[in-house]
Amino acid sequence: MSSPLAQPAWKKLQAIYDDYGKSYSTRDAFAKDSSRFDTFSTTFENYDGSKILFDFSKNLIDESILSTLFELAKECNVEQLRDDMFAGKHINTTEDRAVYHVALRNRSLKAMYVDNVNVSPEVDSVLQHMKEFSELVRSGEWKGYTGKEITDIVNIGIGGSDLGPVMVTEALKPYAHPRLNVHFVSNVDGTHIAETLKKCDAETTLFLIASKTFTTAETCANANTAKNWFLQRAKEQSHIAKHFVALSTNASEVAKFGIDTKNMFGFENWVGGRYSVWSAIGLSVCLYIGYENFDQFLKGGEAVDNHFVNAPIEKNIPFIGGLLTIWYNNFHKAQTKLVAPFDQYLHRFPAYLQQLSMESNGKSVSKDSKFVNYETGIVMFGEPTTNAQHSFFQLVHQGTKLIPTDFILAAKSHNPIEGNLHQRMLASNFFAQAESLMLGKTKEEVEAEGTSASLTPHKMFSGNRPTTSILAQQITPATLGSLIAYYEHVTFVEGAIWGINSFDQWGVELGKSLAKVILKELDADKDVETHDASTKNLINQFKAWA
Ligand code: F6P
To answer: How far is the CA of 89 from the centre of ligand 1 (A)?
Structure first.
């Protein structure tokens, strides 16, 4: 494959950027064009009839920029790669695997093949197992070793085996079973599991050991600690069967750990960790919100898949989202992207998106094994707001960096308290932030307020800071499924244009293997003599102080 830089559309975009793109004014564009909102906004209709409005009109684009970005997507064969993903081809080339998380939310149960095998029946049978199990636990029929109902679920996993389940259970708390508490232990810092176990009673706690590989050091350490804690209380090895289940692809390691593989919920290696919340890794979600809601979550994702596959590029919402990243990252030289949900239930959404985006596209080698000479993955960050407004939005409004931003709001709150006042205040900020970032405040406007000459520059806002406003009706399981699938496909489009493999993660390996070596050195009595001087002295000081 050739570099995106070699594509005619890339050169055209560079020429547009140099000509007028870099100083494009959305403020002027709105003033001149009364139909700008209609041209650059689109409404996604979900499978259940609910809607999500994507307003791209406050971005630094006109029709010519956008259509050239579409040309770029065509020249980079993004549609072909998308079709290859949906056809189960091994598009994860460095690991020689299909990328088939989309098959997990194929609730229409159409045939979906990987290596000539239709995976739909197997996917559905794991879902049926999740349904039966979650119904037993939720109804109270599943009892702990002393005959009590389960009250606490502890998911032990890290990365994709943690961030998705945490984020979704938090986001869908209004749908939670009233008896069940969910806890997530991910960090190998003993504090995480110690503090969690303080809240649990062995008789009523169910541990989900969530690990695709079942070899991840942090998860194995935390799982062993949980098992020891449990056995100190329950005494009998046989009681493990009622209190530990495994969510994994690795049956032999699950059995070695001591979990009966009857209590294992499997998936295949074509599910990447950061794409796995739709799989058995989502069991904590299914237990917490119930199978019917989990099914709606999957269907919301499936509806976006159908749109991504079928809508022409020009109307394709994830294509537009992904191409905007290219415009800002590669032409405007923006380094970051901010996602700010106006929604407290979505407080872990930015953290989830960080893994999705940065583990997928933080690569500097193209699929044909060449080091790239252009920028790839963005630094993704975010926080729920209005809190974020009172911490780092100063930089977003007046700093020297361009920070393209997505704002997310649901029109209907799950907590319409005080006559819905909180929701109206929240919404007023959602609109005000996007408007003020776009409009800014000119010198003349500041001066007209009688501001002194020395203070005037401090009170000016350049404006033209791009935002996409995503307005949902309500954060339901279906809506959340759609939002996640939207960002997955945005990430896909970005990686496809950059010509990188968005589905491996070699970058996490070096640190893991060095940590193994150092762990042995920490166990030894003597000082270390190896390593660079900084690392050696830090290790020895740690040993002296620990
Ligand atoms: O180290 C990164 C990573 O491999 C992620 O991609 C993955 O989500 C996480 O570790 C956890 O892996 P596992 O589910 O195999 O324990």
So the answer is: 22
